[in-house]
Amino acid sequence: MFLRKIKSITGRMNKSHRDKLSGFIWLAPSFLGVAMFYIVPFFFIVYYSVIDSVIHPNFVFLDNFFSLFRNLAFRDATSNTLKFSIVAVPLAVILSLLIALMLEARIPLKSYFRTFFLSPLMVPVASVVLIWQVLFHPNGAVNEMIMLFGAQGIDWMQSEYSQLVVILLFLWKNLGFNMILFMAALSNIPKELLETAETEGAGPIRKLVYIKMRYLSPTLLFVTILSLINSFKVFREVYLLTGDYPYGDLYMLQHFMNNVFQALNYQRLAAAAVVMTIAMVIIIATLFIIENRFGKDVEE
Questions:
Q1: Count of domains in the chain?
Q2: Which residue from 86, 129, 168, 267 has the least number of CB within 10 angstroms?
Q3: CA separation for the pair 283, 34 (Å, rounded)
Q4: CATH number of 279's domain
Q5: Residues in contact with 60: Cβ distance below 8 Å, sequence separation at least 6, in sequence order
Q6: Contact yes or no for 68/271 (Cβ under 8 A)
Q7: Packed helices 213-232 and 162-187: angle between N→C axes, nearest 10 degrees
Q8: Comparison of pLDDT for 93 and 203, the residue scoring more
Q9: Which of the four pLDDT bands, split at 50, 70 and 90, describes residue 12?
Q10: C-alpha–C-alpha distance, residues 164 and 249, integer Å
Q11: Mean pLDDT throughout 185-201?
Q12: Which domain holds residue 148?
């Protein structure tokens, strides 16, 4: 009955209006789902960030944000998260691109290399963490190897090297998916263009810089954003390795937000979520601007 009414309404419209109305109708369920589970809750978070209590709310404007920035735990968590992302994200992008370029070339055992880098995608996070605990335990495999050379063992998760351990875990878990994205983008580069460049005397470096990187710019942007988001979600791995309150260098923003949530301090939690959202929007918008300028000639 509903479809008949829709058809009778659309029958009296011209084609462009019918296409628009049909599009809106088919998009309506998805839009309602996004609004219900993402947009409306975000506005509630913004509301909670400018009041002093959920039970007896009073408008305090930016007081929760000033209190948040004065909080030492928040500053430490922000600093650690930025340090981790600044190191881990470029490594995840560059190494996955290099692996994709290597697998694009004619090398022996290519399928085995591809399987090796994709295998972490099939391993649950808990199993990955168990492997890392075995490797980097004070009496683990890595320390055993170190002591073979006469060096002293290290308590990896309680030392200045703790963030390095998590960066290795992050790379091992994410390089395979990024590699697949780059390999798909490389396969879409026009072969005629590469052959013409080779005929004109361009070497591998020139083809990479002036042709491949130009066509890879949209994928490069997507992989960077994806790696950035994943770097903010490394909380699961660190939590399973070290618990609620890890070594200082591993105390990330999500640790702070999780602990604030357990303390039922919703105003501080909401303020931290708003600050984190604004930071992510600024970073992603900057990446889009850079990619738009770099890849504009390819799109044209």
A1: 2
A2: 86
A3: 23
A4: 1.10.3720.10
A5: 50, 51, 52
A6: yes
A7: 150
A8: 93
A9: low
A10: 10
A11: 81
A12: 65-299
